[in-house]
Amino acid sequence: MSPGGPGGQHDGTVPAPRDRQRPPTAPSDQTASSGRAASPGRPASSGRTGRPPTTSRAEILAAARRLIDRDGWEALTIRRLAAETGVGATTLYHHVRDKDDLIVQLVNEHVDQVARPELPAGPRDRIIVAWTTIHDALAGWPWGAEVLTADGFLARLGDSALWFVETIVAGAVDHGCTRLQAVDLFRSIWYYTVGEILVRAHTVRRKDDIGDADSEFSLRALDASRYPHLAAIGDQWPARASLDLYPQVLHILVDGLLANATKKPR
């Protein structure tokens, strides 16, 4: 006999199982699970709480420039840049591969802002104008020249920088060099240009570190019997070293390299 109402009579009503009685779901859970708006009086969750802010390439490069200007380019690391921008290092790696790639991007951006010079008609003069512009653009950014000291950097340059390289190579070819001789000319003057920039930059930094007095040197104390010419120069060497002779030396290098490449065999 089935259990039921009074007297064991079944009233036809099936009692609901206890596990069907569920407590009401909290409004925030309903919102998260169903995607419906939160109940009035509660702010809707954006779903982005705790995520790092979106950082653009321009913001990363601007932060890198600030860090370099403040602490020097040697202090630039991906970790410090992440702290400067307020994002994780993983976010930065979406935009840069490593420190060298970051500096190359900074150099490319810097050169993008350099006005292309008006080129003269003569190929030799075009070479000199292009090199002078490159030198002046990098002289204030020696850390940019530092990262471009390894062969293979050309493949990482942007259009603006490559325009200068093309101008120099084209000028050499138009003057009578073969393309490979034009490469030799470019590389030779590049070594001089980068070396001149870095020597001056490191000299300034050394003076900042130890002071002007300690950084000065003299050849006067040398044994004149062993080093007669150096001893005679004496105090004139550091004074001469401070002169900016890049324009004169550039002309000499260009003229000498072009003449050697195009001279007629005897």
UniProtKB/TrEMBL annotation:
Residues 1-57 are annotated as: Disordered. GO terms for molecular function: DNA-binding transcription factor activity; transcription cis-regulatory region binding. It comes from the Bacteria. GO terms for biological process: negative regulation of DNA-templated transcription. InterPro entries: Homeodomain-like_sf (IPR009057), HTH-type_TetR-like_transc_reg (IPR050109), HTH_TetR (IPR001647), Repressor_TetR_C (IPR004111), Tet_transcr_reg_TetR-rel_C_sf (IPR036271). Signal peptide: none annotated. Residues 27-36, 46-56 have a biased composition (Polar residues). Residues 54-114 form the HTH tetR-type domain. Pfam families: TetR_C_1 (PF02909), TetR_N (PF00440). Residues 1-10 have a biased composition (Gly residues). Keywords: DNA-binding, Transcription, Transcription regulation. Residues 77-96 bind DNA. SUPFAM superfamilies: Homeodomain-like, Tetracyclin repressor-like, C-terminal domain. PANTHER family: HTH-TYPE TRANSCRIPTIONAL REGULATOR RUTR, TRANSCRIPTIONAL REGULATORY PROTEIN. This is TetR family transcriptional regulator.
